[in-house]
Specification:
The protein has eight helices and five strands. The chain is α/β, with parallel strands linked by helices.
Length: about 180
Amino acid sequence: MFVGYRRISTTDQVAGYEAQLRDLKSHGCEKVFSEQVSSVNSKRPELERAIEFVREGDVLVVTRLDRLARSVGDLLQLVGQLEAKKVGLKILDMAFDTTSPTGRLLLNLVASIAQFEREIMLARQREGIAKAKAEHKFLGRAPTARRKSDAIWSMHHAGKKPADIAKALGVGRSSVYRILAGVG
């Protein structure tokens, strides 16, 4: 059985999300697990469900490598989980299929190159941010809660609990506590 997995990081990527579903269905995926979550520092519950769902002889199908794994280590861990269950992995845009030795070799090579490219991109990004900071062009994200401190104090004096204040204003509860403590 072909089992698909699709993921987008933000809701702005709707066209890509729909294209992934189209490609997975056209490849014959009978079941598709879908989620809208960033792969960085996030749980991916639908990916976990997909890995739990697949059985020996199944193939997990993704449209692109970056929709599945964060890094080479992450990819190798996922492939290891799939291999332990005797499940293959197919990446459509690269025509990789880990059910063959050649497919496994190529997957490892491409994953290493992808991680290298990502690390180079992040290094360039850090350099750009450092330069912008040195030129006083990059000030960072504006503190959201601090701009709402008057509203926080007003709601606090009205008897609202910090958790309710945080929810109503769309800020973190710890930010509310810091402002009320005079720290932020």
